[in-house]
Design brief:
The chain is mainly alpha-helical. The protein is about 45% helix and about 10% strand.
Length: about 400
């Protein structure tokens, strides 16, 4: 398969102010006394812990809200991360769950996250890669909601597993009301739902609880697909130029999925892997002849392929799905202002040519789009479009489509 070097610019998101209602409208049926108890725990007893989490949340919540909205999940549910990991990407539990969303390895692999070994002898663990882990979490939550239909029960199942929730409901005489079946769940799970309701209320109005967090900004980066096995030193030499040490430091921050010790020792990133490059490397390379030579050529639009922008999609996501540069999307669609998209608009995309072969056949489900297939199967969207001779991004329910090898 022909491999093309791609540099894709992601949008810079502003610090999130989170102007949502003071009380969650999502988690209904909880005992208010239990929620108030944990509001006091997180705003008083764990005040400094909560402030650290809220500060880090500015770096992640804008993207979490965007991804969750793609799956039809309320933005408030994204605050599970504060309870799970306090927005610490490298958090690891005694039960060997790790990352922002605290996946154990078997569950992570079930949602297409790559985990190549056991700690500490591992090299790539995508539970630590925020964007992929966010999609895995959203997919899991969406599946649970299709089973249970209310977010309190979904969160209980997220914590203890759907089987345990169903057993608790059965012991409660088949009742699906939280206050009826909760006593048959472990104490940790009973507290989990109330903790999340409490942190949602605090996050939506921290000043009310005596907290004044300063939010970290979202970090801009560039996605880079390796054309051959590549070491950190080789990347720093190619893109870091006079800023090699800063490049290495920022690269490791942006790519938590790599074992830092092993990567520093010279182990190479596999061919075809998507990694994040610090934006400073983009700026340094943007005027160089080498960068101009490796940037993919996008032809002048001539009708081409139409992408229907879905709720929650942004330029960064589309650039990743189709492996094309954001600035080329904007160039082909001059009506885009300030790199912002609105759901429902149509974008004219010109996709790079490539030699591809057919792999497995899948059947589209209701609501499937090119974007949802790409995120679910971790494939190249441009290859998928070309292989199936598609003219727009919306797929037909029940239709069979080829997946590129």
């Amino acid at each position: 398969m022909k491999k093309t070097l791609l540099l894709i610019f992601t949008s810079i998101l502003s610090i999130c102010l989170f102007s949502l209602p003071a009380k969650s409208q999502v988690l209904k049926g909880l005992d208010p006394k239990d929620v108030k108890h944990f509001e006091r725990v997180y705003s008083v007893k764990l005040k400094n812990h909560t402030l650290r989490g809220l500060k880090r949340s500015g770096r992640f919540m804008p993207a979490i809200e965007s991804v969750f909205s793609e799956y039809g999940i309320p933005a408030d549910i994204g605050w599970i991360v504060l309870v799970e990991s306090n927005f610490n990407e490298t958090a690891r539990s005694p039960a060997a769950a790790c990352g922002l969303f605290q996946f154990i390895a078997p569950t992570a692999r079930g949602y297409n996250l790559y985990v190549d070994g056991n700690w500490p002898d591992w090299f790539i663990d995508e539970r630590l890669e925020f964007y992929y882990a966010c999609h895995a979490s959203a997919s899991f939550l969406s599946e649970l909601y299709s089973q249970f239909g209310d977010w309190v029960t979904v969160l209980a199942a997220y914590n203890t597993g759907p089987g345990n929730v169903k057993k608790a409901m059965k012991r409660a005489g088949g009742s699906r009301k939280w206050l009826d079946y909760r006593k048959y769940l472990a104490k940790e799970t009973q507290e989990y739902t109330n903790r999340i309701a409490a942190v949602i209320n605090i996050a939506n109005n921290p000043q009310k609880f005596g907290l004044n967090p300063e939010y970290l900004p979202y970090i801009p980066f560039t996605l880079y697909i390796t054309r051959k096995p590549t070491s950190l030193n080789e990347l720093a030499e190619r893109f870091g130029k006079a800023h090699r040490e800063q490049f290495k430091r920022d690269f490791l921050i942006l790519n938590r999925q790599f074992n830092e010790k092993i990567l520093k020792s010279g182990r190479k990133i596999p061919k075809g892997y998507v990694a994040k490059l610090p934006e400073i490397s983009v700026i340094a390379q943007s005027s160089s002849a080498d960068h101009k030579q490796t940037k993919p050529a996008i032809p002048t639009p001539q009708g081409g392929y139409l992408h229907f922008v879905e709720e929650g999609e942004d330029l960064a996501m589309l650039a990743f799905i189709y492996r094309i540069a954001q600035q080329d999307i904007v160039k082909n669609n001059p009506f885009i202002e300030n790199y912002k998209l609105q759901a429902g608009i149509k974008l004219n995309l010109n996709l790079p040519e490539s030699d591809i072969s057919r792999g497995q056949v899948i059947q589209a489900k209701a609501g499937d789009t090119v974007g949802s297939i790409v995120m679910r199967l971790r494939i190249n969207g441009s290859h998928f479009v070309k292989l199936n001779n598609l003219h727009n991004s919306r797929l037909t329910e029940g239709e069979r489509y080829y997946v590129p090898k």
